[in-house]
Amino acid sequence: MDFTIVIDTREQAPWDFDCQTVRAKLDAGDYSVAGLESAVAVERKSLPDFVHTVIHDVGRFCAELEKLAGYEAACIVVEGDLDRVLRGLETAALRGARPESVLGAALWLGLTYGVPVIWCGSRQAARAFTDAYLRMFVRLRVEGGVRP
User: Fold this and answer.
1) Where are the domains of the chain?
2) Are 3 and 43 in contact (CB under 8 A)?
3) d(CA 82, CA 86)
4) Is residue 140 within 8 Å of 5, Cβ to Cβ?
5) N or C: less crowded end of the chain, CB within 10 Å?
6) Intervals of the chain under pLDDT 50
7) Residues 122-132: pLDDT tens digits?
8) CB atoms < 10 A from the CB of 61, how many?
């Protein structure tokens, strides 16, 4: 299967993948697949960036989510552990926000826009999830929904 991941040119700390990648401006999201840029996207957020975005800059982010909501498949991948957030172990990343507010904002975004927030626990897990998500989308597109 020919598979090239597109990394948005604005992505400041891009992941490395075990496949071909290309840098290009994406209309929405940080990662997509060459030839399917308007069908699938993953928006990557570090935990501090996610908290800042959903608590302090949600208006701008909603414009991005409006675009992602029109895609066949899109998600927000957070390089953070929800359990640690809820237990109050990420106080620096929360920047004064209450854990319940962060969870509530994540749920509101997912239910309002149909773009789920995936808590991946770490940068490495988020990268692995994104790679698998994009590959599965391509597989389903190419093989017409054949189960793995």
Assistant:
1) 4-143
2) no
3) 6
4) no
5) C
6) none
7) 999 999 999 99
8) 20
